[in-house]
Amino acid sequence: MIPFFPPDLFEEDRELLLDVVHEVATDPTQKFILGERTARFEDLLKAELGAADVVACGSGTTALTLVLMAMDIGPGDEVVVPAYGCAPLANTVLGLGAVPVFADIDPVTLVMDPDGAEALLTGRTRVLMPAHMFSVMADMPRMRVLADRYGLRLLEDSAVAQGAVLDGRPAGTWGDAGVYSFVQVKSFGGPGEGGAIVTRNPELGRTVRMLRNHGQDGVHRFRHHRIGLNSRFDEVLAAFQIRRLPGLARRIARRAEIAAYYTERFTPLAEQGVTPPPPGTNGRCYYVYSLLAERRDELKRHLAAHGVDSHVYYPLALPHQPAFAHCAPEGRRWPNAERAARQSLAIPVYPHLTDAQVESVADAVCAFAALAAPVR
Ligand SMILES: *Cc1c(COP(=O)(O)O)cnc(C)c1O
């Protein structure tokens, strides 16, 4: 069986992980959070991205919350988010007492549709929060234009897209702020929870830096300037990520290579109701390789019978989640998000797949399509 969530994700780095645990545990400073390794990790990312500030924090989810808090988002405010994606897109907004307004997605790229988002703007809209999806970055140039035209803040949920580049500009640097997640399945995942905020606005950077540690300024201990969170960064993870950063580009290139092969194999399958993500490399992130399949559940069973594990990301559009349905206006529909929830199926794309495994995944998908009568 080719697993979807490989059990040997950090096998190559096992020694490294043991080393950094030992190093941090025996360091005379005995600092386990927000120490000099965290600061060095932030500086490395900042230099690489040309950002004004990078602030490491407890998770991608709290990274979104910290930015929304720094933007003073609260009751009475609306934040436009995609109708399809992960729960933090809605629950971070609701957690601050604001309202997520769900915009439908593009049927092919699966990212928030800029025209759909524009149609939902009201006098209460404060923030646009597009998210990069499985393998395609959101239309950030259009989002920037909308944010500027209507005087909105732009928060780029780039949790899945670290290392991706659109028109020469890295994911995370398009908005007033962007976020990354280091949870294990993400492109720069590690063995635990972690996230980061990227911003070109030094003032916003200073504010989130305070907010991540209970609103303290980092100079005076126990002086709290703002109501903050506990969303701090772990020194073991910082040490681990510092040493793995140089290999990130190679791992992303391998994901891109696998994805390009899949897309080439699957492009002829449209007649059989299987559609790969759009080809190309500009604005692509290979976090997850997701197909749209009209007979998704049958395809999933077929793959399992042929030794290929797959995964359904987001079987429900966000406005149909029990926790968020109260924010979905009566009668409003999100047809593309609803279709993606019915049809999307993710197949293995992690960098240590062998060429033979990649080929057998593709063969299994193609064999399913060959069995199927044309659907149209
Ligand atoms: C994973 C993810 C998050 C949250 O990151 P965590 O580190 O898991 O909290 C936010 N947004 C998107 C789009 C994600 O995929």
From TrEMBL:
Source superkingdom: Bacteria
Signal peptide coordinates: none
Pfam families, sorted: DegT_DnrJ_EryC1
Entry GO MF terms: transaminase activity
Keywords, ordered alphabetically: Aminotransferase, Pyridoxal phosphate, Transferase
PANTHER family: 3-OXO-GLUCOSE-6-PHOSPHATE:GLUTAMATE AMINOTRANSFERASE, TRANSAMINASE
Record family assignment: Belongs to the DegT/DnrJ/EryC1 family.
Protein name per UniProt: DegT/DnrJ/EryC1/StrS family aminotransferase
Organism the protein comes from: Kitasatospora arboriphila
